[in-house]
From TrEMBL:
It comes from the Bacteria. InterPro entries: Antibiotic_NAT-like, DUF436. Coiled coil: none annotated. Pfam families: DUF436 (PF04260). Gene3D superfamilies: Hypothetical protein TT1679. Belongs to the UPF0340 family. This is UPF0340 protein FRX57_07320.
């Protein structure tokens, strides 16, 4: 895959999802990434550090430009822990866990985020407001309830299937309740 195409497609996807997700400055966005799937392989078997760097750098740039915080999910070998900036973890009271991501223990996305962030740490769990899943990495456990699926403008990045989630407040009160307008589902 040509690097320029990968970057352009990643920008198109992330801008689309950030626009439609309703996420606001100061909120948390989660990314799950399988570079193996992007390259046409099987998740977890052909991790590619270069692809991870390109994709994460592109997404991090877009997320930070909007005043959002990024969490990047690792693979099952690190129990799907996430890398975030230390100040984000401290602000949320998340407990730091001790591991240094590797290409085959954490994956290319987590490794790239660990290298690109100013002061990265790993945490076990978060509640993001929205997220992007490149390669069917199962980010749902890290997105707040109630989750709303978003169909990205491009359904594939390279050969990887792409999905996204956002969240909204729970509707409570039953048929007598009156609800605020839902900015996600217009």
């Amino acid at each position: 895959m040509v690097d320029e195409t990968l970057v352009a497609d990643t920008q198109l996807i992330i801008r689309d999802i950030l626009e439609r997700s309703g996420i606001k400055p100061g909120q948390l966005f989660v990314l799950g990434l399988s570079s193996s799937e992007v390259a046409g392989g099987v998740i977890g078997q052909e991790s590619n550090a270069e692809l991870g760097q390109l994709i994460v750098k592109t997404i991090l740039t877009e997320v930070e430009a909007r005043g959002l915080d990024l969490a990047v999910q690792g693979c099952e070998h690190l129990n799907r822990a996430l890398v975030v900036e230390r100040q984000v973890a401290e602000a949320h009271g998340w407990e730091e866990v001790n591991a240094i991501p590797q290409l085959h223990a954490g994956g290319s996305g987590m490794l790239a985020a660990y290298e690109l962030m100013a002061d990265p740490v790993l945490v076990e769990e978060i509640q993001a407001h929205a997220g992007l899943d490149i390669g069917d990495t199962s980010i749902g456990m890290h997105v707040k309830r109630v989750q709303v699926p978003l169909r990205p403008i491009l359904r594939h990045l390279g050969q990887a299937h792409v999905t996204a989630l956002t969240s909204r407040p729970k509707l409570i009160g039953g048929q007598r309740a009156i609800y605020q307008a839902d900015g996600i589902r217009k």
